[in-house]
Design a protein that fits this description.
heterotrimer; A alpha/beta; B alpha/beta; C alpha/beta; A: alpha/beta; TIM Barrel; five-stranded parallel β-sheet; 50% helix; C: alpha/beta; Rossmann fold; 2 domains; 12 helices; 48% helix; globular
Chain lengths: 553, 132, 317
C-alpha cells in the first residue's frame, strides 16, 4: 500500500477514535489474559511492514507462518490425542482401548508421580501417590501390560516423561521388540524436555549437565535406530500452566528449543540429523486471538532462526510441528460444566493456529482425573470442531486480519526481546541458574491472580456471576487397592527375575554414566532384564547427583 | 511490647511439582503481613511435621495437586499431634474433590480446604480471622 | 517458663522452638528466660555466613552441614531473610536448600525474618543463638543476606565470618562495597566454575596484600556449592581460623568485647525502660508533643524538664 493511502487511513483512524472515544466504553481494562493491552481497532497501518512472501508465505513453505503442511487439515485432520493414564497398567490399558474404539487416533500416556520422579511403587516416597495422577510403571513387565493388545506398529504413542525419559522410552522400545515390531517402525514422542522442568514444571531428577547428556544420547540413538520417533517435545505447556504470559511461553519454549539444538551440535551431531525429530508442545489458553498468533509467531521464529543461526538446510528441520493441550489452569472447580465451553474455545484457537495434534481437557480435571464420560465429551469437542464447524476447510483462515498479523508481529518482537535478555545472562542454563525464568513466571502468575482478584480479568462463575453453587458432577475414584496390588506385583517380579543379570546391568550402567559413551544401549540392556525404573534412577543418581530448586518468589 | 507475628509453613508434600499455587499464596500471605516459611518441593510428611516443629509455626498450609491428599494430610496431622502441636491450624489447597474435603475436615485432619479459583483474600482473610 | 527451660536443657526440640519464638516475639518473660539459660551458654562456636542474594549461601550451608555432621558435631542453623518493609511480612525460603537435614535430630534449623531491625541481624537473632547454645549445639551457623548493617552485626555476633562472593560477571571486586572486605575471616568464591572466578580470587588477594601486617590473613577458598566442590577445604579453613582464634587469645578478646557491648546495651535498655515507664505515668506525651508543634514549648527544654521528674535510683525494672 502506498504511503499516502496509509497516511490517509491513519488520519481517518484518528478521527474515528475521537468519535469512538466520546462514546463510553464498558469501564474495564481491555487486555489479554496475559495482561497485555489490546486496541479497539486495527487497520492496514498496523500491518504496513508486513511482506506477504517473506513474512507469511504459503502453507508448507518457508517461513511456515501459515502452517507446516501444504494442505493442512484438508489432507489430514490433526491427531486427536487424549492424554490419559491412571491406576495400574491394566486399568490404563482398558482406557486406551476404549479411546481407540471411540475414534481417537493416537495414544498419550500420563504417568503417576512416582514414575515421573523415578521412584518405584514400593518406595517410601511413593506412599499415597501410586496410580493417582497417571499410570504406575515400574518395569518392562508393566509396559507390556500397558500396551497389551495394542499393536505398536499401528498406533503412535506420546509419553509425558522427562527426568527418566530414557528409561521409559527403552521400556517402550523393548516392548515393541517383544511384540515383533522392529525399531524402525516404531513411532511416537517422548516429552524429554528437562529444561522446562527446571523452569516451570519442577519434576526434575538429575542436575542440568547429565540431564542434557541423556537427551543428546537419545537424539543420537534415535537417529541411528528409531528414525520415526520424536525425541523431544519442547514444552511451553507447563511454562504457561505455571503462570507465564503467552509471550513468555513462546519465548522460553523456543529458547529451550535452541538450547537443545546447540547441545546436539556441541555433542557432534549434524543439525539436520536430529532437528527434524524435534517437536513442540504448547498451551491453548482462553484468550483466543493471542493464542492463534502465538502459534503463528512460533513457526516463523523457529524457521528463521534454524536457517539463519544454525544453518539447517533440511526443510524438516525448519518446520515447527506441535501438539497442543487446552489450558488446565483456565478451568474452574466451580460450575465445572463451564469448562466444556472454555475447552472448546481453546481447542478452536489451536486449530486456527495449525496444531498437529490436540488434547482437550475434560471438565472435571480441575477436581480429579477425568471420568470416561467427561473424556468422551472432550473428544467429541474436537470432533465437532473438525467435522461440523467447517473451520478445517480453509488453511490459516485468520491470516491477513490486521489484528491477527499485528498481534503475531508483537508476540514475535516480545520473544526476540526475551532472547536477547537470555543471551545477556549467558544462555538458557545460566538463566536457569540465576532464577531468571522462574522469577519472571512467578511475577506473571502473581500479577494474573491479582488481576482476577481485582476483577480486571473475568472468570465466569468465579469472580463474576458467582452463585456459590455446590459442584455436583461424578468424579473418578482411584481404587485404593491399586497401590497395594502394584507393590505386590513389583515384589513378585523382584523374586522371579534374574537378579544377577540385574546387578550386572546396573554396574554397567554406572560405569557408562561415569564415562561418556551413549547411555541408551546400557539402559536398554537393564530394562530387558527387568531392572526397575527406581533401580536405574538410583544407580544414575549415584553418579550424577540430584538437582535442587532455587528459593525464589 | 510483644512483636508477635503469625508464622505459616507453606509446604509441598508428595511428589508433584506444581508449585504455582503454593508460591502465589506464599506471596499473598507475605503481602498480608504474615511470616511465611517455605519448604520447597517434594517433602515427606515427616519433613513437614519436623519443620513445623522447629519453626514453631501457627499455621501449616499444604499444597497438594497429585491426588495423594487423603493419604498425606491425615499423616501430617497425626505427626503434628505427636509433636504436641494440636493448636496448629492446618489448611490444605489443591485439586481436592468436595467429598474428600469434607472427609478431611470432619475427620479432624484439616481445618479448611481451598481449591483452584478461590481468591487470595479469601485465604489470607480466613487465616487472619483465626488469629483475631 | 521454668519447665520450658529445663526441657530445653534436656534436649527437647519443641522447647527450643518455643523459646526462640518467645525471644523473637519480645515476650514479657524473655529477660527472665535469658537469665536462666545464661549459665548454660558459652560453649557453642558461632559461624556467620553472609553474601549477596543469589551467591549460593544456602547450598553452601547445606554442604557445610554434611561436613560438620561427618565430624559428629551438633549444629544449630539460623537463616535470616529480610522482612518486607511494606507489609511487615516475609517469605523465608532458605530452608529449601537444607531440607535433607530436616530429619537429622542433631541439626536444628530456624528461619527468622529481620522484622523491625532495619535489615540487620536483629537482637532476636542474638538471643536465639543463646537459646541454641544452651540447647547444647556445638556449632551455630548464621546465614544472612549481606546488605547494609547486617555485615557489621554478624561480625559482632560470629566467632568466624565467611563472606561469600561470586565471579562478578566481569565486575571488579573493587566495586563490591568496601565494608564487606573488612569483616571477612574467610572469603568464599562460590560458583567458581563460572568465568572470571580466578580473577575474582586474584583481586581479593591483591586487596589483602595491601594490609599484609594483619595477624590473620583471610584465605580465599573457591567452591562450587551445587557440585560439592571445595567444601572440605572450606571447612578446613574454618577450623584453621578457629584454632587461630583460640590459640592467639583472640577468641577471648572478641567474646569479652561482645559481653561488654551486651552489658552496655542491657544497661541502656534498663535505663530507657525505667525512664519511659515513669514518664508515661507522669506525663501525657501527646500533650507535650502538641505544645512543641504549636511552638508553645521547644523540644530541648521539654526533654530537660521531663527528666527532672524521674527517680533515677528506683529499683524496679
Amino acid at each position: 500500500m502506498d504511503k499516502d493511502k496509509l497516511n490517509r487511513i491513519a488520519e481517518k483512524k484518528a478521527l474515528w477514535q475521537e468519535q469512538a472515544g466520546s462514546a463510553s466504553e464498558r469501564g474495564e481494562p481491555f487486555k489479554t489474559v496475559s495482561n497485555r493491552p489490546v486496541g479497539a481497532l486495527y487497520t492496514p497501518v498496523d500491518t504496513a511492514g508486513l511482506d506477504y512472501e517473506e513474512d507469511l508465505g504459503f502453507p508448507g513453505s518457508y517461513p511456515y507462518t501459515r502452517g507446516v503442511q501444504t494442505n493442512m487439515y484438508r489432507g489430514r485432520i490433526w491427531t486427536m490425542r487424549q492424554f490419559s493414564g491412571f491406576g495400574d497398567a491394566f486399568d490404563s490399558n482398558s482406557r486406551y482401548r476404549y479411546l481407540l474404539e471411540q475414534g481417537q487416533t493416537g495414544l498419550s500416556v500420563a504417568f503417576d508421580m512416582p514414575t515421573i520422579m523415578g521412584y518405584d511403587s514400593d518406595s517410601e516416597r511413593s506412599i499415597g501417590e501410586v496410580g493417582r495422577c497417571g499410570v504406575a510403571i515400574d518395569s518392562l513387565e508393566d509396559m507390556e501390560a500397558l500396551f497389551s493388545g495394542i499393536p505398536l506398529d499401528r498406533v503412535t504413542t506420546s509419553m509425558t516423561i522427562n527426568g527418566p525419559a530414557a528409561i521409559l522410552w527403552c521400556m517402550y522400545l523393548a516392548n515393541a521388540e517383544k511384540q515383533g515390531v522392529s525399531l524402525d517402525r516404531v513411532g511416537g514422542t517422548i516429552q524429554n524436555d528437562i529444561l522446562k522442568e527446571y523452569i516451570a514444571q519442577k519434576s526434575w531428577i538429575f542436575p542440568p549437565e547429565p540431564s542434557m547428556r541423556l537427551i543428546t544420547d537419545i537424539f543420537s540413538f534415535a537417529a541411528d535406530h528409531v528414525p520415526r520417533w520424536n525425541t523431544i517435545s519442547i514444552s511451553g505447556y507447563h511454562i504457561r500452566e505455571a503462570g507465564s504470559t503467552a509471550a513468555q511461553e513462546l519465548a522460553f519454549t523456543l529458547a529451550d528449543g535452541f538450547a537443545y539444538v546447540e547441545a546436539g551440535i556441541k555433542a557432534g551431531l549434524d543439525v539436520d540429523r536430529f532437528a527434524p525429530r524435534l517437536s513442540f508442545f504448547f498451551n491453548a489458553h482462553i484468550d483466543f486471538f493471542e493464542e492463534v498468533c502465538k502459534y503463528r509467531a512460533a513457526r516463523r521464529i523457529w524457521a528463521r532462526r534454524m536457517k539463519e543461526c544454525y544453518g539447517a538446510r533440511d526443510e524438516r528441520s525448519l518446520k515447527l510441528r506441535f501438539h497442543t493441550q487446552t489450558a488446565g489452569c483456565s478451568l474452574t472447580a466451580r460450575e465445572p460444566e463451564n469448562n466444556i465451553i472454555r475447552t472448546a474455545l481453546e481447542a478452536l484457537s489451536a486449530v486456527m493456529g495449525g496444531t498437529q495434534s490436540l488434547h482437550t481437557n475434560s471438565m472435571d480435571e480441575v477436581l480429579a482425573l477425568p471420568t470416561e464420560k467427561a473424556v468422551k465429551i472432550a473428544l467429541r469437542t474436537q470432533q465437532v470442531i473438525a467435522y461440523e464447524s467447517g473451520v478445517a476447510n480453509t488453511i490459516d483462515p485468520l491470516a491477513g486480519s490486521y489484528f491477527v498479523e499485528a498481534l503475531t508481529d508483537r508476540l514475535e518482537a516480545e520473544a526476540e526481546e526475551y532472547f536477547r535478555k537470555i543471551e545477556d545472562l549467558g544462555g538458557v542454563l545460566a538463566a536457569i541458574d540465576q532464577g531468571f525464568f522462574q522469577q519472571e513466571i512467578a511475577d506473571a502468575a502473581y500479577d494474573y491472580q491479582q488481576s482476577v482478584d481485582r476483577g480486571e480479568l473475568t472468570v465466569v462463575g468465579v469472580n463474576r456471576y458467582n452463585t456459590e453453587e455446590k459442584t455436583q458432577i461424578e468424579l473418578l475414584k482411584i481404587d485404593p487397592q491399586v497401590e497395594e496390588k502394584q507393590v505386590k506385583r513389583l515384589r513378585e517380579l523382584k523374586e522371579k527375575r534374574d537378579s544377577e543379570a540385574v546387578r550386572r546391568s546396573l554396574e554397567n550402567l554406572k560405569k557408562c554414566a561415569a564415562g561418556s559413551d551413549n547411555l541408551i544401549p546400557v539402559i536398554l540392556e537393564a530394562v530387558k532384564v527387568y531392572a526397575t525404573e527406581g533401580e536405574i534412577v538410583s544407580s544414575l543418581k549415584e553418579v550424577f547427583g540430584e538437582y535442587r530448586e532455587k528459593p525464589l518468589f | 511490647m510483644s512483636s508477635k507475628k503469625i508464622r505459616i509453613l507453606v509446604a509441598k508434600p508428595g511428589l508433584d511439582g506444581h508449585d504455582r499455587g503454593a508460591r502465589v499464596v506464599a506471596r499473598a500471605l507475605r503481602d498480608a503481613g504474615f511470616e511465611v516459611i517455605y519448604t520447597g518441593l517434594h517433602q515427606t510428611p515427616e519433613q513437614v511435621a519436623e519443620t513445623a516443629l522447629q519453626e514453631d509455626v501457627d499455621v501449616v498450609g499444604l499444597s497438594i495437586l497429585s491426588g495423594a491428599h487423603m493419604t498425606l494430610v491425615p499423616r501430617i496431622k497425626k505427626m503434628l499431634l505427636e509433636n504436641g502441636m494440636s493448636d496448629v491450624l492446618l489448611v490444605v489447597g489443591g485439586i481436592i474433590p468436595e467429598d474428600d474435603a469434607e472427609e478431611l475436615i470432619e475427620g479432624g485432619s484439616a481445618d479448611r480446604v481451598f481449591t483452584p479459583g478461590d481468591p487470595l483474600d479469601k485465604i489470607t482473610g480466613y487465616i487472619s480471622s483465626r488469629f483475631e | 517458663m521454668q519447665q520450658l527451660v529445663s526441657e530445653l536443657l534436656n534436649g527437647n526440640r519443641r522447647a527450643a522452638a518455643r523459646l526462640i519464638s518467645l525471644v523473637e516475639n519480645d515476650d514479657p518473660q524473655k529477660r527472665e528466660l535469658l537469665r536462666e539459660i545464661y549459665p548454660h551458654t558459652g560453649n557453642a562456636y558461632v559461624i556467620g555466613v553472609t553474601g549477596a542474594p543469589g551467591s549460593g549461601k544456602s547450598s553452601l550451608v547445606d554442604w557445610l552441614l554434611k561436613e560438620l555432621r561427618r565430624d559428629a558435631l551438633t549444629v544449630g542453623v539460623i537463616a535470616v531473610d529480610p522482612t518486607s518493609p511494606f507489609s511487615g511480612g516475609a517469605i523465608l525460603g532458605d530452608r529449601i536448600r537444607m531440607q535433607d537435614h530436616a530429619m537429622d535430630q542433631d541439626i536444628f534449623i530456624r528461619s527468622m525474618g529481620t522484622r523491625g531491625s532495619l535489615g540487620g541481624l536483629s537482637r532476636a537473632t542474638r538471643e536465639a543463638i543463646q537459646v541454641l547454645d544452651a540447647f547444647g549445639k556445638d556449632i551455630i551457623l548464621i546465614e544472612t543476606v549481606g546488605v547494609g548493617q547486617s555485615e557489621v552485626d554478624i561480625v559482632r555476633t560470629a566467632d568466624s565470618t565467611l563472606v561469600v562472593l561470586t565471579p562478578a560477571g566481569g565486575d571488579s571486586v573493587q566495586t563490591i562495597k568496601a565494608g564487606i572486605m573488612e569483616i571477612a575471616d574467610i572469603f568464599v568464591v562460590n560458583k567458581s566454575d563460572l568465568p572470571g572466578a580466578e580473577r575474582t580470587a586474584t583481586e581479593i588477594n591483591m586487596m589483602l596484600d595491601m594490609k599484609s601486617d594483619a595477624p590473620w590473613r583471610p584465605p580465599v577458598v573457591p567452591t562450587v556449592s551445587v557440585a560439592n566442590e571445595g567444601i572440605e577445604e572450606l571447612w578446613k579453613s574454618v577450623q584453621d581460623h578457629r584454632r587461630y582464634m583460640e590459640e592467639s587469645g583472640r577468641l577471648i578478646d572478641v567474646r569479652r568485647e561482645r559481653v561488654s557491648r551486651e552489658l552496655t546495651e542491657q544497661v541502656e535498655y534498663l535505663v530507657k525502660s525505667h525512664i519511659w515507664a515513669q514518664v508515661k505515668e507522669e506525663i501525657k506525651l501527646d500533650d507535650l508533643v502538641g505544645k512543641i508543634v504549636n511552638r508553645e514549648q521547644d523540644p530541648y527544654s521539654a526533654a530537660g524538664e521531663l527528666l527532672e521528674t524521674i527517680d533515677f535510683y528506683g529499683k524496679d525494672t
